Amino acid sequence: MLADRLSRRRFFKVVCLGASTATLGLVATLLPVAALDEELGLSALFALRGTRSPPENLLIVSIDGESADELDLPARVDKWPRSLHGRLVERLSQAGAAVIAFDVIFDEPQSLREDGLFAAAIARAGNVVLAASLRQRTLLVPPAGGGAPAELIVEQLHPPIARLADSAAGVAPFPLPKVPVTLRQYWKFKPGAGDVPTLPVVITHVLARDVQEEFLRLAKTVSPAGARRIAPDPEATLPGRRVERLARAVRTLLADEPTTAQRLIDSVREARGPPADDGMRRSKLLTLIRTHDGGDTDYLNLYGPGGTIPSIPYWRVLKGEAASGPLDLKGRIVFVGLSERFRPERKDDFHTDFGTMSGVEIAATAVGNLLEGNPVRPLAPAGRLVIVTLWGLLLGGVCIVSSARAGAAFVLIAALWYLGAAVYGFASSGAWYPLFQPLLIQAPFAFLGGLVWKYADTEREREAVRFAFSQFLPRDEVDRIVRDVKGVGRSSRVVHGACLATDAEKYTTLAEQIEPIELLHLMNEYYEVVFEPVRRHGGFVSDVKGDEALAIWATAQPDPNLRRRACLAACEVDRAVEEFNRVLSRRAGGELALPTRIGLHAGQMSLGSVGAIDHFEFRAVGDIVNTATRIQGLNKSLGTRILASAETLEGLDSFLTREVGTFLLVGKSAPIVLHEVVGRADEADPAQRTLCEIFTRALRAYRAGLFDEAILGFERALMSHADDGPSRFYLGLCERGKGGLGDGEPWTGIVRMNVK
Question: pTM of whole model > 0.70?
């Protein structure tokens, strides 16, 4: 039964912490804080993955300061003669470039000759894509119900000058944010500008012009209605025609029918062409499909810092050679744009996870991602939720059932494994697994949550131990043991204090008369009566044996207040037991009582653990304890209830006491002066005070050896209090004329006791 309860409790902890960790991850995924996973997690993935090789067919022709110096041109690229760009296009085209993309805006005309030479070169090449810009325009839209028109801000395409735009294979913008944030995404289609395709999309269409007819045939097979929407005019798909309308149409097809993209991919993989160009043809078709699959944006899968994509200065291309030898451009996609180091105003700088990068490098990276089909792919929202949920349940469950050290080791190993798997997936396929929530939120939370829960459990256990031990040990000793449980067997210290010893009369007879279980219940009731005053006055019951108990009051330095509290407890125990006996007699319907004798002594004692091997008991050890027990036993001979040594009562005037003599107790070598504690001084009646005065005079005569005078005094005391035990005790000594000493010894008045 207990094992089942513990098992259920552990299961509850596992579920509770696991669910809490999972919930925290879910909240961090759904709230705006999830943006930190892009800022921190994606940056970490790029840093851990490092630089990777870009596709071999990417090349940047950089417009840089070196070229300006070599060609004796101005620093402003818009002042460069466009005939020079025409020569560049001719050189690239002759060298076999597959696509030539200018990331330079030609929206201002130069001379007719310069623009004409450039346009003619573009037309002859047939594979040049020119960059355009987007400009905001405010439109006034009249409301349907009348009233003042509303302002609507839209973006409109601002192409290059018409002569150049009409000659190009494609014209497209490449809008990127101009704010100081890390650039991680780019537009494939710009919704605010009428879903215009951007530069990377148009480049892939120009690259795949030779397979567009095959693409249309596949589209008709997969989706006949959609294929008709793509190209109602077959001339629109012929080489040399612009591809903007085709790109929009393909995007519409794949957006309207989400399964079309995968069916097209399956058809491409099943189709067969001429063995010589089958691989290239299939690659272009897949690139065309992947370009339009997905949303309007893609995450950039950067290849590395600026300069990772191969770059050749503008002037070297004009000369037809690279720095290391002849220029090899066959089949390459060539981007022409400003070098990062050739922008005095640095308007084309973009901050990325690999540092500052130029716009032309961003465009080349985007095209490379489309060619490889591996942009950074964030997990779908459902996938992220599943991961953080399972991860949270795993971490929370393990951290709650394992030790702190094992939990820390598991969290560390699991986090390293997860990080390694995430980096591997990112490097191999661009898969972006969340890092911020699992590693920076859930892992610390699960570990710390486990620690806090264990600490709370430990504190509850300590409180339970403290409560249990407090039934047997002083509270300060319990606190010390809880702090240092290993030292429990070595605990000992010398203290000053008082001991109170009790003994119940008639216990032996009572034990013979009633059943053991009844005796157990009766003694528990009895000790509850005895212990309560002791506890209330700051004492600690250190030992219980049968009908005997020992209570102590201890402190590091002598303290009269401890002795006063011990005497107060003794008086209250005496009254409480008297009331208990009356109730017990009424309940039993006859004579049933446990009269109690009390002995008090004070002084120095040793307090600590007594025992060996695997059994120890916390006790007070020393002559003080033994003497208190002997004093308690003397009550039987004197017929008293409370006896206290002179050391206990020294300096205390709040009690009515009478000295009952000097005794040499059994087993002791030094005599001790004892007093009867009659009660509290403020509660004593005149008769008790009178008895004490008469007895004191008689005891003085006894000590002086005046036995006749002493006998008269003790008899007088018995006349006023017939049951006065000390008077009867001394009257017997006087009549025997011995005084407790043997013949031939000098008279001292010391009473030698031969029985305990």
Answer: no
